[in-house]
Specification:
- With 339 residues, the chain is an alpha/beta fold.
- It folds into 2 domains: 16-109 and 215-309, Vaccinia Virus protein VP39 (Rossmann fold, 3-Layer(aba) Sandwich), CATH 3.40.50; 114-214 and 323-338, DNA polymerase, domain 1 (Orthogonal Bundle).
- The chain is built from 15 helices and 9 strands.
- The chain has helices at residues 16-23, 40-46, 63-73, 108-112, 137-143, 146-157, 162-172, 180-188, 202-212, 215-229, 243-254, 287-292, 314-319, 321-327, 330-338, and strands at 30-33, 52-56, 77-80, 97-103, 235-240, 256-257, 272-273, 275-276, 300-306.
- Helix 3 (63-73) links the parallel strand 2 (52-56) and strand 3.
- Helix 6 (146-157) packs across helix 7, helix 6 (146-157) crosses helix 9 and helix 10 (215-229) runs parallel beside helix 11 (243-254).
- It is globular.
- Bound molecules: S-adenosylmethionine (SAM).
- S-adenosylmethionine binds at residues 11, 13, 35, 37-41, 56-59, 62, 83-84, 103, 105-107, 130-131, 218.
- S-adenosylmethionine binds next to helix 2.
Length: 339
């Protein structure tokens, strides 16, 4: 696999105007951009000379862009190469934070980077690491048992043929170590729904990317920890690109403290709303934006204003426990590959 990357292909920041119209009424202050990427969102916010940005990104390749920003915006811009679930490690006065922004997924540079292997047109060793990872898709495909692969494909890819696919992978890897092109070859031989507009490999590649990057746990703990960082009146804005992410964000914003777990028990505890939702439905890109930037078609933006403090998120975490447990199957990779 070649490691050369052609940098600086322009990444279109999705729903940027809508994002700006949400955060500009918050006046000037500090904004945390949890997904710096190619800096489109940060740049827009820094157009206001009274704004500051704390930007995070797990991909070390974004450091080059961040250094350019540092040179231009000086002390109005700070960058940290960390995962957003670690947002609580950022040292900052909470009262100064206006909003925390998540623009999830990957940038154009990353999908075009042959080293990352996010595209099914890639060749060579499977990877899919966005940065700060413990293992890659190579170990997942060549090491996990068939029943574990099936869970990953079914729950993270919502793939109906998960069982057949995982069995085929299991059989094929008895003969050789599977590379990206071998996986695509296996998927091309499966009899998928011919009417579907998406490529056979799309859902499987998505599921592997989610698993390798622990995207479910990252989002759940990223949201919880950013909530803890925010003062009352602070806003969380999240743009998602697939239904699992959107479900997590929607539940988080609707989550209330002390909800009774059973409808048969008397309601002795008072519900405390954590957020004010100004839009119940997600904001989606206009037809014009989709025409200009096709990948934006699956984007959904949700945002909410923090109106209460809360410490216990166990009930929210429990809703997605089954997905976190699937991500924890990665412990088996550790035992087999690295110990
Ligand atoms: C869609 S891009 C962001 C694009 C950016 N908003 C822009 O306008 O250029 C998503 C970015 O989030 C980063 N990312 C994804 N998951 C992350 C995580 N858990 N922690 C930190 N960064 C993450 C990716 O590395 C990628 O650079």
């Amino acid at each position: 696999m070649s490691a050369t990357v052609k940098p600086e292909k322009e990444h279109f920041s999705v729903l940027l105007n809508e994002l700006v119209s949400i955060i500009s009424p918050l006046y000037s202050g500090t904004f945390i951009d949890c997904t710096f990427g190619q800096g489109g969102v940060s740049k827009k916010i820094l157009e206001n000379p009274n704004n500051k940005i704390i930007a995070l990104d797990r991909d070390k390749k974004t450091i080059i862009k961040a250094n350019n920003f540092k040179e231009k915006y000086k002390d109005r811009f700070v960058f940290k190469n960390i995962k957003f679930s670690q947002i609580n490690e950022v040292k900052i006065e909470k009262k100064d934070i206006k909003a925390v922004i998540f623009d999830l997924g990957y940038s154009l540079n990353q999908i075009l980077d042959p080293e990352k292997g996010l595209s099914f047109n890639s060749k060579g060793k499977l990877n899919m690491k966005l940065g700060l990872n413990e293992f890659s898709a190579h170990e997942v495909i060549n090491c996990l048992e068939s029943k574990d692969l099936e869970k990953i494909f079914r729950y993270f890819g919502e793939e109906k043929k998960a069982k057949i696919i995982s069995k085929k992978i299991f059989e094929s890897r008895k003969k050789k170590i599977l590379k990206t092109e071998d996986l695509v070859d296996i998927l091309n031989k499966i009899n998928f729904n011919k009417k579907s507009k998406i490529h056979n490999a799309t859902k499987i590649f998505q599921s592997l990317r989610i698993f390798v990057n622990r995207e479910i746990s990252e989002l759940i703990f990223g949201l919880i920890n950013s909530f803890k960082m925010l003062p009352i009146g602070g806003v969380i804005v999240a743009i998602s690109f697939h239904s699992i992410e959107d479900k997590i964000i929607k539940s988080f914003f609707k989550f209330s403290e002390n909800k009774n777990s059973s409808r048969y028990l008397p309601n002795t505890k008072k519900n405390t709303q954590l957020f004010q939702l100004l839009h119940r439905k997600p904001i989606v890109p206009s037809r014009k934006e989709i025409e200009l930037n096709k990948p934006s078609r699956s984007a959904k933006l949700r945002y909410a204003v923090k109106i209460n403090h809360e410490q216990n998120f166990n009930e929210f975490i429990n809703i997605f426990k089954h997905l976190i447990e699937i991500e924890n199957l990665s412990k088996k990779i550790w035992k087999k590959y690295f110990l």
